[in-house]
Amino acid sequence: MKPQPGWPSSSCPSPSFSPHRVDVCVVEMRLSVAARKLWCIRKQLIVLLVPLLFLPLLFTLPEKEGKCLYVVLLMAIFWCTEALPLAVTAMLPVCLFPTLGILPSKKVCIQYFLETNFLFLSGLLMASSIEEWGLHRRIALKVLSIVGLQPAKLILGMMMTSSFLSMWLSNTATTAMMLPIANAILESLFGDLETLKEKCKSPSDPELDLINGTEQNQLSTQSTFLFMSEEVEQCDPRTPEEIQSEAQYQMKVWKGFLICIPYAASIGGTATLTGTAPNLILIGQLKTYFPNCELINFGSWFAFAFPLMLIFLLVGWLWIAFLYGGLSPLCFRKNERAEAEAKAKAVIVEEYRKLGRINFAEGAISFFFILFAILLFTRDPKFFTGWSVLFKKGYVSDAVTGVIISSILFFFPSQKPSLSWWFDSRASNAPYVPLLSWKKAQESVPWNIILLLGGGFAMAKACEESGLAAWIGGHLQPLAEVPPAAAVMLITGFVACFTEFASNTATIIIFLPVIAELAIRVSVNPLYFMIPATIGCSYAFMLPVSTPPNSIAFASGHLMVKDMVKTGAVMNVLGILCVSLAINTWGVAMFNLTDNPDWAQTNKTTQVL
């Protein structure tokens, strides 16, 4: 047998040496090539084969339930594997539900722009204007200049700032803005990162010599070390071991800074309805399944979720500061510590100085931002009478409030109006610039998420009208034996683990209908299960691929997967415990969760009929 072109000489023996081994090598190479080609077209294969794989569902289950489950499973697989873009998968109900006879198109299409989508859009427009004029950067630098420069305080400052901004901006934008600020502060404290990494290594480690290989490399390493040692002896009385220990500690603190930002951004997004998409999906699905439930709005959600965010932020800060050495003073000698802290403070002050005095646009955005938050919070907070009583009941919602404020941004001027401009012939006649332009809105608003929300609402509507939710609920009856408090922890833990591998939006879309039906079957207030599940799906801390903020922090190149797994596993547990505490204490009091409400009973009766 002649050798084939492309055979690697090191892995495949000469044909004359062993024909049998050559045949094995050929087979292995062909399998490897085939596997690589299959991997290249894996998404196309999923799109083509998964619908065929699930075809038996159409013939083995009740007609409407089977068809709806077929579409739900297709969308779940496509979302988890991203075989199709998330937004494209979200549009599948428009073509599949009408053609399979599940829902008419007029009922499907209307789900893609419910009032919940308008509330989400208004929050995104407000966030776009804040980013446009740099107000978020001013807030971040101001907070960091106040909290102090000890590692624990700085980590707390980073987490407080990231979580607050993430309540209004996207988690991704918050993380992308905060990481460069963190790196600048760290470089002023500890110097260049690459130099710090070199100090962490042991120059006399024999394993490094073996890795380096040749005797020439060994001699070069030894001579470099001797030269460095002489320099250290002249300039620094500490031993190489002490220098290495200090550098390793500083490297730990550096990692703590980087890892706390995406975690705090994910935590902060849970505090407001517009902070993250799963919160809005909860509202939309409540309107679908329980139209008479009016307990959740911007104000009542904030009153419940904001204290939970603060508790989890404090507990998470203690864990991260403990794990990464932030609870200790900076590992410097006294005079060096003062010098490093002065440099870091100078960096923050200088960055803030570059922003200049707060201008008219920033002041206007601040005003409308505060007005936006106050109006949403006080419309109908449930624990006191809101301003919505001034209007006809049921006519004014959070979406109306949000759209009014965000619309003003498109015509309110970004420069202070002046009466003298009318009488000054030399003044510029250029058109005034509003606080937000439509071009900027088009660029910064993630329209794909709005489609994703719509796809989730369409799926929920189909699950309800086809009877699939009730059918699944009937098969969950054995779970009625589990105590509700334990069920809350199990549900939150399961969703938090699942969202490590899938989008949090897709996760809550898939599981929220099942969780709602489970609550009805076990005669528990649906909010008792649905609220923890919604919050839990934002607690994805363990993997770089879990959320975009995690990916951004990991892409810096200074974190390892094991760092995120070690930190994130405990964060997940802490998050589950905090959610369980919140829902069983002030959550019970706020939403009256001890009773099985009439609005849930009405829905159950409707489904049975």
From TrEMBL:
GO terms for cellular component: plasma membrane. It comes from the Eukaryota. The chain crosses the membrane at residues 45-62, 68-97, 109-130, 150-169, 257-281, 301-327, 360-378, 394-412, 487-515, 527-547, 568-589. It is found in: Membrane. Keywords: Ion transport, Membrane, Sodium, Sodium transport, Transmembrane, Transmembrane helix, Transport. Its main location: membrane. It is a multi-pass membrane protein. GO terms for molecular function: citrate transmembrane transporter activity; sodium:dicarboxylate symporter activity; succinate transmembrane transporter activity. Belongs to the SLC13A/DASS transporter (TC 2.A.47) family. NADC subfamily. This is Solute carrier family 13 member 3.
